[in-house]
Amino acid sequence: MQPIPQTRSIPGATPFDERPTERPAPNPCTVDEVMTRNVVTVPFDMPLQAVAELLLDCGISGAPVVDDAGRVLGLVSKTDLVRWQMDDGEDLDPRDVESGQSVEDATTAADVMTKGIVIVQAGTSLSEAAGVMARAGVHRVPVVDAAGMVVGLVTSMDFVRWVAGLP
Predict the structure, then answer these.
(1) What is the model's pTM?
(2) Domain span including residue 118
(3) Residue 1 in domain
């Protein structure tokens, strides 16, 4: 067995095991720099069939649901539509169905959307937004202005593009 060589100290050199443990902070970046700006939104009263067609036509998996003033009320996704279909509309109040109208025709985005969603304010740092998304276990969050109006949407793929240095 060969002896293990002893390390020697060189004046002015930093030993390998004494390197800083903290990484330098990345360039400051906000959600505004990576978010999608032309966000497809869904009116709260849009019929379910129209919501499904909109998601398919736009090639998106979900969209913010907004009130008449454009403020975020929730998110509707393909998963919400599938869940509703699997439940056969059990959550819809029968009083909301007009006579002669099917449950599907009476169902709106507001009936199937995910409520109590996570949002971030415009100008939020990417690291803060990533933390919010990670803690909530979500892959997309609407970005809103001070009035609660949708100004963008930031997704986990936006973070991947940023890390990769892609536009």
Answers:
(1) 0.72
(2) 28-164
(3) no
Q: Per residue in 5-14, pLDDT tens?
A: 555 555 554 4
Parallel, antiparallel or unpaired: strands 140-144 and 120-121: parallel
Q: What are phi and psi of 100, to 5 degrees?
A: 80, 0
What single string gives the DSSP state of each residue in 14-60?
Answer: PPGGGS-SSPPPPPP-BGGGTSBSS---EETT-BHHHHHHHHHHHT-
Compute CA distances 39 → 6, 42, 65, 139, whole Å. 62, 10, 11, 15
**Confidence band of 97 (pLDDT split at 50, 70, 90):** very low
- DSSP-derived 3-state class of residue 154: strand
Q: How far is CA 160 from the centre of its chain?
A: 13
CATH number of domain containing 158: 3.10.580.10
Is 64 domain-assigned? yes
Residue 23 lies in a domain: no
